[in-house]
From TrEMBL:
Pfam families: TetR_C_24 (PF17932), TetR_N (PF00440)
GO molecular function: DNA-binding transcription factor activity; transcription cis-regulatory region binding
Keywords linked to the UniProt accession: DNA-binding, Transcription, Transcription regulation
Protein's name according to its UniProt entry: TetR family transcriptional regulator
Species: Dictyobacter alpinus
């Protein structure tokens, strides 16, 4: 693909992100996306076959980025606590850096057509499974207290995702300061206190 073609695709995609986030997928006409990108509406079809293709690319690109970064954390770190801290920081960093893109992922799953929904949902499921793997490992090694792994993963994802709804780059706290606060909350909730024995097997964490 020629550089100028890549640039035009990026312009179209950026316009789609802006309008999908501002008005919602169904309320964002292709002609308005084209207008913001600086091209004729018909020219979009030289780059994307449909508005749905734009939505799928936005979701796929950023879910793959989220998954790849967590896979890297699991591969490069063996210590459960270091993994957890890195995972929290990574989730908050990506969701505050790409606020509009992840907002679209969180709110427009219902707009996916039937042939695309299972694939995008599988990327989300994979992220949840990776985080659950991290938590399960920490519980089995008696670093984290035993709890329901799936519920714990949902709680962490919800907490860290919510940062993007209120965080402002020029606000009172930096991303790093917010990350430190969240890391403290989550870690204190998960860490097994020193000298406390792990529960009996019938109370152990499990995957639903």
């Amino acid at each position: 693909m020629r550089p100028e073609s890549r640039s035009m695709r990026e312009s179209i995609l950026a316009a789609a992100v802006q309008l999908f986030a501002q008005y919602g997928y169904h309320a964002a006409p292709l002609r308005d996306i084209a207008r913001i990108a600086g091209i004729q509406a018909a020219s979009i079809y030289h780059h994307y076959p449909s508005k749905q293709a734009l939505l799928v690319e936005i979701m796929e690109t950023h879910m793959l980025r989220l998954n790849a970064s967590l896979e890297h954390i699991l591969k490069e770190n063996d210590d459960p606590l270091q993994r957890l801290h890195a995972a929290i920081a990574n989730h908050i960093r990506l969701h505050t850096t790409y606020k509009e893109e992840f907002f679209i992922i969180d709110t427009e799953m219902r707009a996916l057509e039937d042939e695309h929904r299972p694939y995008i949902l599988s990327l989300r499921d994979k992220y949840e499974a990776l985080l659950q793997e991290l938590l399960q490992d920490g519980m089995e090694r008696e670093i984290f207290r035993r709890s329901d792994v799936k519920i714990a993963s949902y709680a962490i994802i919800a907490m860290c995702t919510e940062v993007a709804t209120w965080f402002r780059p020029n606000g009172r706290l930096s991303v790093q300061q917010v990350n430190t606060i969240y890391r403290q909350f989550i870690t204190e909730g998960l860490l097994l206190p020193p000298g406390v024995a792990a529960p009996m097997p019938d109370e152990t964490a499990h995957l639903l």
